[in-house]
Amino acid sequence: MKPPLFLFRHVTKRFGDRVLLNIDEFAVSEGVCTLISGDNGAGKTTLLKIVAGLIKPDSAKVRINDIDMSWAKARARIQRNVVYLHQDPYMLDTSVERNVAYGLRLHKEPRARIYEKVADALRWARLDHLAHRNARSLSGGEKQRVALTRARIVNPSVLALDEPTTNMDQQSRISTYQLIDELRNEGMAILVASHDQTGLTPIADHHTQLISGKLIEAELAFKRSRGTKITRLPR
Amino acid sequence: MESLTDASLKALSLLVSGDAELWAIISISFGVSLQAILYTVPAALLTAYALAHFEFPGRRTLVSLFHTLLAVPAVVVGLTLYLTLSRSGPLGDLKLLFTQTAMVLGQMALSFPILVAMGHSALQSADRRVWETAHTLGATPLRAMFTVMHEVRYGLFAAVIAAFGRIIAEVGCSMMVGGNILNYTRNITTAIALETSKGQFAQGIALGIVLLVLALVLNYSLSTLRHRLAMQA
């Protein structure tokens, strides 16, 4: 069995007197989708942001390739490999095409190559017909698909999704799950935070609950065999 | 003393006939103020970003200080700069007093707090998700800063327009450190003050018309930007 991409250990985070996170161990493994559930305010978003290198924990160790290091030392590496997606993804005030191209333009790839990749990515997400629309004018489901495409194009090892299907209609949720499932099948590690335990189980391999700052292994309410296409949601 | 009607007709004729002296004054005004804005914008926006984005001791005090500096009269800035640049002042050896450079410096000092205060408000209103999205997609801190600035660009343009409006219309500082020298440091406002004191209103009215048109253009640009800001929100 392959070692995890990242093994986070002894993660703590306090807000004032309140201990929000006190996690002994949390593994992020290639091609595995982990559902993190918990009540509102349980610390799911904070955990994902720590994993993505966006929030500094009070303490944490990270094991990468069997080498232990502090979170601060691992931060640059984490940021290169993990993309975090907000519950309501932020769309830059420009076209869908330029939103998707953002990460590639940061790496100064040739313009023609960038737009070739963007066109492919938009076709993958079935968003090509919206390429020239301002991304802010899209529906919630379409924005989430743009955000997933924008993340996929920079080829991260880990995708951290924060409540990706909140306030979406059934069809948009199915489309989003299908894209996430494809990303997982491409070998990406997927972390999904949600307070909705049943809705996200079609794409999850593991389920862990965040209770009083601790991660507790939980059962999946619905287990789907890999390779089958998601066409409906579990009741 | 000429009547208001006569003076206004003469003013229009001066403007339309392309009077060399009048247009030299106008070009000095725009030249000095545009230079001042161009030199101030980068440092002011970086300061505004630092105040909006980073937590450090004294940050709130600095924000309050910049808001207080908004109310400092131009003559006070002029006086301070005059004392600094005068022969006995700390920078007297540079011989900058009564030069366009001194006027640019004065207008930079006047526009800096406006740009910082308004820029800070615009940058502070930026959604935290912009910075996080830029970072998570691989942006360096510098590139993330430009992305945040791009997202609040209408607010930043509004700050630049407001600062430009303030410095091109100020008289006290330019008069004190420029010296109102014809074809060198005489700008629109100092020329109006001089011509009025001589009882020659035509040139003053013509220059006043130029300032009014400019104010109209700037205000129209500001209201368009505010509308876009509201749409963005």
Topology:
The complex is a heterodimer of chains A (235) and B (233).
Chain A: E1 6-15, E2 18-28, E3 33-37, H1 44-51, E4 59-64, E5 67-70, H2 71-81, E6 82-85, H3 96-106, H4 111-124, H5 140-152, E7 158-162, H6 170-185, E8 189-194, E9 206-211, E10 214-218
Parallel strand pairs in A: 3-8, 3-9, 6-7, 7-8
Antiparallel strand pairs in A: 1-2, 1-4, 4-5, 9-10
Chain B: H1 4-17, H2 20-53, H3 59-69, H4 74-85, H5 100-124, H6 128-136, H7 141-151, H8 153-168, H9 172-178, H10 188-198, H11 201-232
Which of globular, elongated, flat, extended, rod-shaped describes the shape of chain B? globular
Order of helices and strands of chain B: HHHHHHHHHHH
Main sheet specs of chain B:
none
Tally of alpha and pi helices of chain A = 6
Tell me what you see in this structure.
The complex is a heterodimer of chains A (235) and B (233). Chain A is of the alpha/beta class and 235 residues long. Chain A is built from six helices and ten strands. A six-stranded mixed sheet of chain A has the order 6-7-8-3-9-10, sandwiched between helices. Chain A has a four-stranded antiparallel sheet with strand order 2-1-4-5, with helices on one face. By secondary structure, chain B is mainly alpha-helical. The relative contact order of chain B is 0.16. Chain B has helices at residues 4-17, 20-53, 59-69, 74-85, 100-124, 128-136, 141-151, 153-168, 172-178, 188-198, 201-232. The mean pLDDT of chain B is 93. In chain B, helix 1 crosses helix 11 (201-232), helix 2 crosses helix 8 and helix 3 packs across helix 5. The chains are: A alpha/beta (235), B mainly alpha (233). The A-B interface holds A 49, 52-54, 79-80, 82-84, 86, 88-90, 92-93, 102-103, 106-107, 150-151, 154 and B 127, 129-130, 132-140, 143, 147, 150-151, 232.
